[in-house]
Amino acid sequence: MASAAPELQVDDTSSQRTRPEGLRASRGDVDYRKLHRGPPVTQRNETQIPGTREAGETGTVTKPVAARSKDQPSSAASLATILQTVIGIKEGLRAAEERALKAEERALKAEERALKAEETERKTQEVLNSMTHRIDEMAAQLGEFYNDVTEQNMQQGDSLTVQIGGLKEELMANVQDQIANIQMSSSPSPSYAEIARTAPNSQPSNLRTLTSMNTTPSTMTDTLYCTVDTSRVDEDERSKAEPGAIREAIEKEMRTAADRGSWRCTAVIRDPRNTARIRVTCRDESELQLVKEAAQKTAAPGARVLRDQLYPVKVDNANRTAILDQNGVILPEVMEALGKENEVHIAKMAWLSKKDTSKAYGTMVVYVTKGSDAVRLLQGQYFHVAGESAYTRVYEARKGPTQCYKCQGLGHKAFSCMKPQTCARCAQEGHHHRDCQAEIMKCIPCGGPHESFSRNCRVLYPIRHE
């Protein structure tokens, strides 16, 4: 172990420390106040260690003096300031970093908004292009529609011209009929038969105009029409259902099938009460049949050729034995015989009175093919049946629910009925009422003890039971 350091020897007569020879200063050169305070930071006390002088070495021990303890607070304050500065710099860097992150987020959001704006602009452009294309298509369709309307107006003008011509012909025919009637009424010494057959000058009270019979004024003449109904034709085939197209097709078929190279339609007009029906005027009945066949062959899909229009005339006080057989069925040759006797063409007829009664006279209805014949029969007030004269009246179809004569149900007709045949007498399935032998009758509509078509039915004839 090292020996203890020898005590320092201090000169009592002098406050100066021992200095080397060359460093000694005079009293006048030394500022004792500064010397007493020492250096600003530390003051060293050099103590000679024994044995060092001989070796030429000097050992010094540096001890802090009282002045150093005075400077320690300022150094701590400096370190605190530096630490606070460093912390402030770190916080500034952190805030700058946060600001940079926020700026980057704002840049990303701005980029997203720019992308969305670009996508919106692209979609808007697509919509504009689609609308422009649609507008062009609508403009083209409007142009086609305008052309079609113009063409239809021209065709309607032609049809109106033809219709006016047909009306002129009808008026001329009416004038000729009236002249013929005047000549017949002015003939000298007419017989009783002629008087009975000639229409009276005054119209009877029970006669109504043909307008009330759901006919048009054109039916008062002998003009024959082939009617084509175009109401069910599709829009794609509508051009083939125009009057001009129908005329061309019928003329072409007639010239080919009937070997009539120069044949032409008399007139093709629209029905003024139903514009979906095209009427082809025919010269006679034979031509009417040919035109109907040609129209059926050349009709557009959905078009249909209607049957001839019939005009009903009610005949009262008709001889039952001249019309019906013992089973209540109309005789086979009676329509042809009555047509020749009355100079009319009868398409069909029906017995209206009860068939199971013992009355010798009853009521029937005859359907003629010409409106002029119906007018003549009504004006003459007589219809000849096997030499006897019956009375003519305007036929009024019964007003009530539609009845099917196959299943005896209501609301439809037999041609469209899919149910089995049901007897109108006993209400059983499988047979017709003509072949029924049942004694107990039952009405299907009301359940009463009568036939299903009887006038005693409260459902079919509610007015009679009010």
Give the rounded overall mean pLDDT.
75
pLDDT < 50 stretches: 1-28, 41-70, 183-220
Assign the CATH architecture of one domain: 2-Layer Sandwich
Spatially, the strands of the biggest sheet line up as 6-7-5-9-8
Output the structural class.
alpha+beta
Map the helices and strands.
Elements: H1 32-37, H2 52-55, H3 66-185, H4 192-197, E1 224-229, H5 243-257, E2 267-271, E3 274-282, H6 285-298, E4 304-305, E5 311-319, H7 320-323, H8 334-342, E6 346-351, E7 361-368, H9 371-380, E8 382-385, E9 388-394
Antiparallel strand pairs: 1-3, 1-4, 2-3, 5-7, 5-9, 6-7, 8-9
Structure write-up:
The chain is of the alpha+beta class and 466 residues long. Among the domains are: 216-305, Alpha-Beta Plaits (2-Layer Sandwich), CATH 3.30.70; 311-394, Alpha-Beta Plaits, CATH 3.30.70.330; 401-466, HIV-1 Nucleocapsid Protein, CATH 4.10.60. The protein is built from 9 helices and 9 strands. The strands form 2 sheets. It has a 5-stranded antiparallel sheet. Strands 2-3-1-4 form a 4-stranded antiparallel sheet. Strand 8 and strand 9 (388-394) form a beta hairpin. Helix 5 packs across helix 6. The longest helix is centred in the first third of the chain and has 120 residues, at 66-185. Mean pLDDT is 75; it is low at 1-28, 41-70 and 183-220.
Please name the defining characteristics of this protein.
4-stranded antiparallel sheet; alpha+beta; 12% strand; 5-stranded antiparallel sheet; disordered N terminus; Alpha-Beta Plaits; 466 residues; HIV-1 Nucleocapsid Protein; elongated
